C-alpha cells in the first residue's frame, strides 16, 4: 500500500475544486508519462489514458474523478471579508473553521484564510451557536491586513476566484487515512498504481481499456463524454458511502447496487461479486441514496454500456473524510481483478 497511499497524499494536497483542475491533471499526466503512457487531455479537461489490450474490438472504460468540492468568491463584503458560493454538493457546516486558499485569477497569487461564521465570537454574538450556517452568515477571513472592500479588491481578488480547502492529510500508524477529498483521490491513486504495475510487470490486459480521470464529477456531468464507440463496459471507481442503514465500512470494498440514478447493471455487478468471492476480497453490497457517479452521468448522456460502481468506504463523505488501508487495498484488488477478467459474454 505504500505507493498507493503516497499517491493519495500527493493528490489530496493539490487543490482541484471542480473547474480548477489543470494543475492536478498536469501532475497525473506527468506521472503517467514517466511510466511510458501517452495521456491525452480532453477538450472538457479530463485526462484519458488508453491501454492496448489483446482484444481491441471490445473495450472498457474505468474512471476516477480528480475534481473536488470547493468554493468561489461570491462577493467582497464591506468589511473586506469574502462571501462564498459553494462548488459541489455539501453543506456549510462541513467547512466551518477550515483553513482555505483563495486562488487569485488576476495575479496568480494564493492568499490564505479561514472559513468562519460571521457570528463566531460567543463574547459578542448571542446566537453564535444557533445561527444558521448559510451563505449569508459564512465568510472567509483573509490573512491579510484588510478591513474594507476596497483593500481586499486591491489584492486582486474578484468574484469567481476559486477557493480550496486545506485537506489536512493524516495517515495513522493504525492504517487510517484522514483527509478532505478522499472522494475521489483514493480511487485516482488506485488507478495510477495499477497503471504503474501494468507497465513495470508488462501485464497485457484482455481488452483495450481507457483510464479516464474526469474533471466535473462533483457537479454531475463528469466522464459522460469522450467514450470510444467500442466501449461495452464502464466501471466508475468512486467512494462507498457510509452512515445509518449502510452496509459499507472502512475495511472492505463497497459495490454499489443502486444510487439516486437507479440500479446499476445487474450482470456486471454480479460479475464483480463473483470476482471478489473467487479471490477472497472482502466486499459489501450497498445502496447510496443521495449519490451519482461518472457512470450514472454517462448513462444519462445516452451511453450504450453496462455500468458499475465500486469504491473504498469513506466515512463522513463531503466533510473531513476517513478510510482505512484495508478498504483501499480491497478496492485496488477488485479493480485489478476486474480489468484482468473476461468481459461478460465475450472472450478475448
Provide structural commentary.
- The chain has helices at 2-12, 22-35, 149-153, 182-200, 266-278, 294-300, 325-339; strands spanning 40-41, 47-51, 55-65, 70-76, 82-87, 99-103, 110-117, 138-142, 162-165, 170-171, 176-179, 207-214, 231-241, 253-259, 262-263, 283-287, 306-314, 321-324.
- β10 (170-171) and β11 (176-179) form a beta hairpin.
- The protein contains 7 helices and 18 strands.
- Helix content is 24%, strand content 30%.
- The protein has 348 residues and is α+β, with helices and mostly antiparallel strands.
- α4 packs across α7 (325-339).
Mean pLDDT: 97
Number of strands: 18
Rg over C-alpha atoms, rounded to the nearest angstrom: 21 Å
Q: Give the number of helices.
A: 7
Shape assignment: globular
User: What proportion of the residues is helical, as a percent range?
Assistant: 10-25%
Largest sheet: 9 strands, mixed
Unreliable spans are none
Residue share in β-strands: 25-35%
Element order, helices and strands? HHEEEEEEEEHEEEHEEEEHEHEEH
Determine the structural class based on helices, strands and strand pairing: alpha+beta
Q: Which key phrases capture this entry?
A:
348 residues, 7 helices, 6-stranded antiparallel β-barrel, alpha+beta
Short description:
The chain is an alpha+beta fold.
Chart the SSEs and their pairings.
Layout: H1 2-12, H2 22-35, E1 40-41, E2 47-51, E3 55-65, E4 70-76, E5 82-87, E6 99-103, E7 110-117, E8 138-142, H3 149-153, E9 162-165, E10 170-171, E11 176-179, H4 182-200, E12 207-214, E13 231-241, E14 253-259, E15 262-263, H5 266-278, E16 283-287, H6 294-300, E17 306-314, E18 321-324, H7 325-339
Helix pairs in contact: 1-4, 2-4, 4-7
Amino acid at each position: 500500500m505504500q505507493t498507493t497511499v503516497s499517491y493519495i497524499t500527493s493528490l489530496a494536497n493539490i487543490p482541484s475544486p471542480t473547474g480548477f483542475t489543470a494543475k492536478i491533471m498536469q501532475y497525473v499526466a506527468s506521472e503517467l508519462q514517466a511510466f511510458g503512457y501517452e495521456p491525452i487531455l480532453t477538450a472538457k479537461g479530463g485526462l484519458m489514458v488508453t491501454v492496448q489490450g489483446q482484444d481491441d474490438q471490445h473495450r472498457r472504460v474505468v474512471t476516477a474523478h480528480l475534481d473536488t468540492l470547493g468554493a468561489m468568491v461570491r462577493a467582497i463584503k464591506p468589511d473586506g471579508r469574502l462571501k462564498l458560493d459553494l462548488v459541489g454538493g455539501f453543506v456549510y457546516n462541513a467547512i466551518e473553521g477550515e483553513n482555505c486558499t483563495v486562488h487569485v485569477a488576476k495575479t496568480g497569487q494564493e492568499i490564505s484564510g479561514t472559513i468562519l461564521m460571521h457570528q463566531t465570537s460567543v463574547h459578542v454574538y448571542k446566537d453564535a451557536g444557533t445561527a444558521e450556517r448559510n451563505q449569508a452568515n459564512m465568510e472567509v477571513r483573509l490573512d491579510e491586513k484588510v478591513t474594507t472592500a476596497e483593500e481586499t479588491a486591491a489584492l486582486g481578488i474578484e468574484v469567481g476566484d476559486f477557493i480550496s480547502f486545506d485537506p489536512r492529510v493524516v495517515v495513522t500508524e493504525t492504517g487510517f487515512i484522514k483527509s478532505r477529498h478522499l472522494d475521489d483521490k483514493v480511487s485516482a491513486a488506485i488507478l495510477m498504481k495499477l497503471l504503474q504495475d501494468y507497465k513495470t510487470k508488462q501485464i497485457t490486459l484482455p481488452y483495450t481499456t481507457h483510464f479516464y480521470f474526469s474533471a466535473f464529477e462533483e457537479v454531475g456531468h463528469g466522464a459522460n463524454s469522450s467514450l470510444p464507440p467500442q466501449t461495452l463496459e464502464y466501471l466508475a471507481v468512486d467512494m462507498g458511502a457510509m452512515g445509518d442503514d449502510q452496509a459499507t465500512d472502512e475495511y472492505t470494498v463497497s459495490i454499489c447496487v443502486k444510487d439516486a440514478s437507479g440500479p446499476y447493471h445487474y450482470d456486471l455487478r454480479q460479475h464483480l461479486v463473483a470476482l471478489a468471492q473467487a479471490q477472497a476480497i472482502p466486499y459489501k453490497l450497498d445502496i447510496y441514496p443521495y449519490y451519482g457517479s461518472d457512470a450514472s452521468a454517462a448513462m444519462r448522456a445516452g451511453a450504450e454500456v453496462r455500468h458499475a460502481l465500486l469504491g473504498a468506504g469513506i466515512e463522513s463523505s463531503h466533510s473531513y473524510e476517513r478510510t482505512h488501508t484495508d478498504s483501499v487495498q480491497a478496492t485496488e484488488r477488485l479493480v485489478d481483478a476486474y480489468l484482468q477478467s473476461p468481459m461478460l459474454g465475450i472472450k478475448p
